[in-house]
Amino acid sequence: MDEQNRERVALFRYGIIAPLLNEQVDRATYLAEVSAKTHEVPYYGSKEFTPKTILAWLRQYRRNGFDALKPQARSDRGQSRSLSGELQLHLVSLRKENQGMPVTVFYDQLVQQGEILPQDVSYTSIYRLLKKEGLLGKGIVRSPERKRFSHDTVNMLWQTDLSDGPYLRTGDKKIKTYLIAVIDDCSRLCTFAQFVPSEKFDGLRTVLKEALLRRGIPKMLYTDNGKIFRSDTLHLACAELGIHLLHTQPYDAASKGKIERLFGTIKTRFYSLLKAKPASSLEELNERFWKWLEEDYHRKPHSSLNGKMPLEVYLSQIDQVRMVDDPAKLDPIFLKRENRTVKHDGTFSLNNQLYEVPERFIGQKIEIRYDEQGVHIYEDGKPVARASEVNFHDNAHVKRKRPAISFADMQGMDRKGEDRE
Q1: Chain segment 334-388, per-residue pLDDT in tens
Q2: What's the CATH superfamily of 157-329?
Q3: CA nearest 374: which of 362, 384, 392, 387?
Q4: pTM of the predicted protein model
Q5: 214 burial class (0-12, 13-18, 19+ CB within 10 angstroms)?
Q6: What is the SS3 assignment for 341?
Q7: Of 7, 37, 273, 357, which sits with the fewest C-beta atoms within 10 Å of its C-beta?
Q8: Which intervals hold domain Integrase catalytic (predicted)?
């Protein structure tokens, strides 16, 4: 089992124990319910687990953290998975565009269009994926019955989402922005928010890291099913930090009422200020927004808080907040992860850029983790080397090492020359 599969199994196990870890459920009742079910486990398939096994995972996590949930490394490293995380997201996106199509027809179309190869991805794998995502049939999507709720402890639950932001004009160009925000369910405090230029995961990573550094670590994080919120990087980061990552049911965005209300307040009160005086750059937009957030939103009495201010409620429970003990630990936790096979010339490609690595990795399948700061090579969850961008100009002038010829080789060459004479 390779490192990626070990992490997926650990994430599955963490998902099982998270309600127990955060004391969200009655232990005996929860163990009885979970042990009575059959679970689809990454790599292993259908499995059932006893309460004893689940409690063993819980003890392992409490003693040694997320790594303790990983299966022990085996000798079959390097085997590829039939459905990678990116492929699953892509297939789910295609299915949502063709939800009324029978699954058998959908599978045949994927093969015909070259999205998958039948020898690599079976019909059963596609069926299981669509079943898990609730995308087997067209059906009628009904709004689920829900009751209003609110946690009475800060950092018990955070909600996060992405919303369309205002357009910026720079010269003749019109640039679209997006707002990513995180809100504390109890205090309605916006733990952090920022306007970003794209819907990519990089923006979410920046916002979450700032929120964690400024306002501590929540027990649960509640998101929708958007691509960036389903990323493997987010799942792994939450597991490393002991955060239970929760997703809304498909087509049920209304269940994140508090973050939607925050977006509505921002549009009503902050965007009106932008109309009177538009921002000329992304930097200016964020500076003005953060100022408004601290001076206006956080210090306005909320009717849902019995007339109290979000900052007032948050600070009243500051002694219960679990802060990040070492900010430097957040950087490696939020690195993106990929697998690559190193070519014979010691290079691999990532995001249309060629990178080179030390000779010992030639021909090997390696795990890389990266962000804007650099690309690192990992083995068994540990960084072992750094990849560097290939500079074709410099490489053309590098003096190559030639293999040394031994004295015995020289004698052999001389004898061959004598024989020819």
Answers
A1: 999 999 999 999 999 999 999 999 999 999 999 999 988 899 999 988 899 999 9
A2: Ribonuclease H-like superfamily/Ribonuclease H (3.30.420.10)
A3: 387
A4: 0.66
A5: exposed
A6: strand
A7: 37
A8: 140-318
